[in-house]
Amino acid sequence: MFSRDKWSEIIEALSSNWFRTLLTAFGVLWGIFILVILLAAGKGLENGVKQGFGGMATNSMFMWSRTASRPYKGMPKGRQYNFKIGDVAALKQNVPNLRYVSPRNQLGGFGGANNVVRGLNSGAFNVYGDYPDIINQDPMDITSGRFINYADIEDKRKVAIIGEGVRKELYDIGEEVIGTYIKINGVNFMVVGTYKTKGNNNGNSEEAQKQIFVPFTAFSQAFNMGETVGWMAITAEDGSSITELKSQVFDIIKTRHTIHPEDDRAIGNFDLYEEYSKVNGLFIALKGVAYFVGILVLLSGVIGISNIMLIVVKERTNEIGVRRALGATPWMIRGQILMESVFLTLISGMAGIALATSVIAIINMQLEGVDTSEMMFANPTVNLGVVFTALAILIISGLLAGLIPAQNAIKVQPVDALRTE
Fold it and tell me: What is the model's pTM?
C-alpha cells in the first residue's frame, strides 16, 4: 500500500547528499546502458549479415558432380560424369520433404566470360539456364516484365531476364528493354524482364546484377547441353533439415551414376543450412557475451549502491534505534532499506535504458538515408523482451544491493543505537 510518509523519507534520505547519490546511480546507469547498447549492436550486426543472404531459402544446399575417386562395378577411378535431368525427377519421387529441386546449367564463370551482344554494344556476363522455382530459392526483385514460367519451359521459348547491370551496359539510359533481343553465343533471346538482386550477395552485389536467366530447356537446346545438368539447388520443406536429408540425396545420385557408396568425393556440395546454423550459433554466443559483459558492468554499479547503503545505515543508526524503540519490527526496518535500494537502482537503471534507446534511435535515423545492402550492419534494435529482462535484472540487483545493509540495520539494538551520537 502506498505510504506518503515512507516515500517522503526515501526521497529525503537519498537527496540528503545528492552528489554522492548521483555518482552511485551513475554506476548502474552506465551498466544498463552498456548492456542495451551491446545487445542492439549485436542485433544490428545480425541483421546486416542475414541481409547478405538476400532472402535466400536458407534450408537449401547446392550440389554438383565431380570425378569418382574410387573404382566401382568395372568403372575406373577418376571417371567423370554429369548429372542428368532424370535425376531431378528421381530425387523428387524418392526423397521425402524436398520442396524444390532446381537443375541449372551455366555459361561463363565468376566475373563473366560469356559474350553477349545487343546491337553495337557487347559485354561478358554469366548466363544461367533455370526453372521457375529458382526464384523461390534465390529471391530477386523483378523490376520490370516477368521471370521465367513453366510455359517457357514447355515451349522451349528463347526468352531472357537480365540484371540491372546488364541493362546499363547494353542499353542507353531510358531505352525500352522489354521486347528487345540480345544475342548469346550467336543465339537470339527476347528480353521479357529485368531484375535486381536482394542483399549484398556476400559482397558481390555488383557482379550479381550482371547475370542473365533463360529457361532451362531453351538453354539446353540452344547450347547443345542435351540432358546434362550442371548443378542443382535443393531446398527442404519447412520443419525438415536439408542437412539431414542430403545423405539420401547422395545415395540416389550414386546409385543412378554407378558411384561407390562410400565415395564422398564424387559429389560436391555446399550446405547453406549448415552455414546459416553456424551464423545463428555465432549470434547466440554474441548475445551471451553482451549479457555477460553488461551484467558485470552493472554488478560494479550495484556494489557501489550496496556500499552507499551501508554508509547510509551507519549514518542513520540513531534514527533506526528510535524507530525500534517505538515498536518498529525488523521486517519494517529491512523493508525500508530494501525499498530505498530498489528505488535508487530502478531510477538510475531506467535513466540508462532511456539514454541507450535514444542513442539507438539516433543511429537508426542516421541509417535511414543510407543503402545498408552493402553494409554488414543494419537496423540495430532491442525488443520489449530485452527491456523487461533489464527491468528484472534491475529489481534483483536492487534487492541484492540492499540486502546486506538491511541485515546490518536490523542487527542494531535499540539501546545501543540510542547511545550513538
Answer: 0.68
